[in-house]
Amino acid sequence: MIQAEWLYWLVGALFLAVAAQMATDRSNPKRFGSAAFWGLLGLSFVYGTWVARKTAPAAPLGAAVLIMIVLAGCGFTGRGAPRTPSPEQRTASAARLGNRLFIPALTIPLVAVVCSTLAKHWRIGGRPLLQTGSETIVGLGLGALIALAVALLLMRERNPNVALHAGRGLLESIGWALLLPQLLSVLGSIFQVAGVGTQVGKLTTHILPGDNKYLAVVLYCVGMALFTVIMGNAFAAFPVMTAAIGWPILVTQLHGDPAVVLAVGMLAGFCGTLVTPMAANFNLVPAALLELKDQYGPIKAQIPTAGALLVCNIAIIAFFAF
Amino acid sequence: MIVLFGILVVVAGFATRRNPLLIVGIAGVVTGLLGGLTPMKVLAAFGTGFAASRSVTIFVIVVPIIGLLEHGGLQEQARTLIGKLGALSAGRLLVIYLILRQLSAALGLTGLGGPAQAVRPMVVPMAEAAVERKHGTLSERARERVRSYAASADTVGLFFGEDCFLAVGSVLLITGFANATYHTHLEPTQLALWAIPTAACATLIHGAQLLRLDRSLDSLAAQASLERGLPAAVGRRTAKADHNPAQEAK
């Protein structure tokens, strides 16, 4: 059975290889800080396997995470001079390879989709081929490996190291933003343990007067959006706001249709995700990947849509739930 | 009540534009300690949280392939391809991508697309080529705007498409939470159905935004040629050369 953990090890190995390259890259003024950051990240990905299985203590991993935060957050990391072929070389190569260049790029999602739909049911000796529940992740990994092979063949490139070097350039341009989504998820779980959710629930019920259903709908939707902005994740805001307003007031007290209230309430949270830097994987990582100077560029493009959609969500609940 | 201090740390940190990694790290440590965890338990919470959330970072696995293909001229080829499609402006191209992304996500194919797999290697070069065909060269501001909107088309499409699909995380989270906590019988189908009105609004609203991009690019180009007093002639390469030092400074 192909396991998701193997893929995490592969990603860890990729980070370690990148770290080794960085340590020897003299064009990077902060090469040792950078190498330490990416090296620790690589080790954490591998060590995480046993933490997830609860067979290794989690505290050392936590310490490593804090060290990575300090390394990247206090400016001990940097990037080397990018080594890319000249525009002329790339144009010549594009002319030679033509649309075949798209084949490997499209292989990745194709394999991922096949794995998450068809290969899900394949069995070898009665056991599922892909780890149950992780088919898409495993599919992404398999897709990447197959695409790499296809790309190397197509470009008649014998040295896989070329891909590693190219990947390092991209990773250096993403930089610390790469770690933020995972950290937010950590913050969410710490908030949960420390009882932040219950406190927010109590506060909101205090604010809400009487039985005005439109006001309650507005509070629920705006609360979902605001709390999502703070937490960077609508999934973290949903249980809090639903326990505070959505269920006790909108469904139980005012007899709203729970399917409408909860489905659209979650979407109101997504409006918050569109406008918060805390949702780094959707907002900051694309900005870094696309080499934007203004890391808030995507957020600025999304603000009008988020505002208008929040109003739509409020209207949909108000009209259809009661 | 005092545990809410962590939220204040987050808000204050962003208001003063500190590094987000530091903000989140400090907010986590502060909240944990205020919530009565021992320092060892706080460390353990960071460790378990990190191990459990590794799947968020898994997209890194495609980065070497995309880098390799870019060395082979993937972006240039995407430009050439869109150069052949006559009437497609950047805004219209992005509207098509938005709708495709929504439809495929609604069918559960969330892996088709994404900033690393599709936007950087294919959508952005195509959109930029469409602008270049119309206005000649691309100013730094115009490039920033096109790329920001390309990222937004991907994100909005994904968010408001995937909830129409039954087996997606958020739908399962809603049914799981409500059925377990309130002993009710919500079906994923009902929830997916009620995601459709918002999805339709998202297509209309964000589609209109993307079409407005064309007009704002027109006025940017007009402004640029006025400022220079000549039909925009300063090339892409200068803009690109300016780019890297600025990124370092960040």
Automatic annotation (TrEMBL), chain A:
It comes from the Bacteria. Pfam families: DUF979. The chain crosses the membrane at residues 6-23, 35-52, 58-81, 136-155, 176-194, 214-247, 259-279, 299-321. Keywords: Membrane, Transmembrane, Transmembrane helix. This is Putative membrane protein.
TrEMBL record, chain B:
Pfam families: DUF969. Keywords: Membrane, Transmembrane, Transmembrane helix. InterPro entries: DUF969. The chain crosses the membrane at residues 42-69, 191-211. This is Putative membrane protein.
